[in-house]
Amino acid sequence: MNQHVLILVENLPVPFDRRVWQEAQALNDAGYEVSVICPMGKGHNEAYEVINGIHIYRHPLREADTAAGYFREYATALINQLYLSFRVRRRQRIDAIQACNPPDLMFLVALVHKILFGTYFVFDHHDLSPELYVSKFGRKDFFYRLVQFFERQTFRVADVSIATNETFRDIAVARGGMSPDKVVVVKSYPEASRFRLTEAEQSLVIPGKHLIGYIGIMGAQDGVDTLVEAMHDIVHVQKRDDINCLIIGDGPEFGRLKALAAERQLGDRLRFTGYLSGPSLLAHLSALNVGIIPDPPNDFNDKLSMNKVFEYMMLGLPIVQFNLRQATNDAGNAAMIVAEHSPRALAEGIVSLVDDPERREEMGVLGRAVAERSFRWTAEAHRYLDAYRTLFDHRLDVNDQRHYPAS
User: Which residue from 150, 232, 256, 311 lies 20 to 30 Å from 262 (Cα-Cα)?
Assistant: First the structure.
């Protein structure tokens, strides 16, 4: 029987979570049996289904917006994950459990299986939970120290850590105490064959109008409110009638952001699409002239490799963003960096790029060239699969030693 990997995700459903779905498909294509436990949502509300041979178990999840609320959310999710993990095990032996944070609590589910059955634990390190906590709540209190403790324990239990960039790899080694040979960098590039320019959504293509846009989750830490305020400056202060904005995605702040846009009297100058996927998503993205990254500079965002950076570049979109260390490094010459973090500065950056079509064209071409040369999910998938091969080869070596002791 092929080795069986169980993937745990708490904050997004699968296959909506692109990185996790790509990993699950890579494992499945390589001959592994794959199961996923994740929350319901984003149009994926079936408690159980099989997609392309991957077994997906989903549980209800109520998103929180306070520190205490998050721990209630996570505790409920853990109970569901633990219960479902034993449902999965009843169907088939589990050889490895991969936990995709946040939060850094899912190691507890893996630890139960590790103690009882010797199951390997792979930590897929998506977010920096201590920095994320400070970004959301602006304080370093008891809960912050608890988050730090859980992060340390996650690394301690992990047999392998998968980092989304080199900064995360260094954190796993320095802060998590992991051996460098047990940390593998796997970047979150989209699959090039499935993420490319298509015919633009015609309702968005208006002669004489420029369309800027954002794609992503809308949480308190994502700064989308700054983009809304920047549009207010563009429309009502600078009196520009040639720039519209499209915001694609969903999240805890979605309702508040729509209310803010209405309060700022932006009308149809700013449109929210909600969650999109597949051809509809690509058609909307293909209508954009500029991609916006409004995430505020802080210790959390500075270290992240953001999916939207890779996505904008693969579509040849020039980017306007604040001075975020990792995003700036990833985007290179495809991004215009706004030094001051404010809606007015973001608005001025957007307007200056909109008014410079030659620079937009040059930035887009440079970004797309880098993406075509370097953003290859197939290469990342090989590194990801190599981590599992090494892990399971080690188990075979150990078993051989048990069966054939040294004389």
Answer: 311
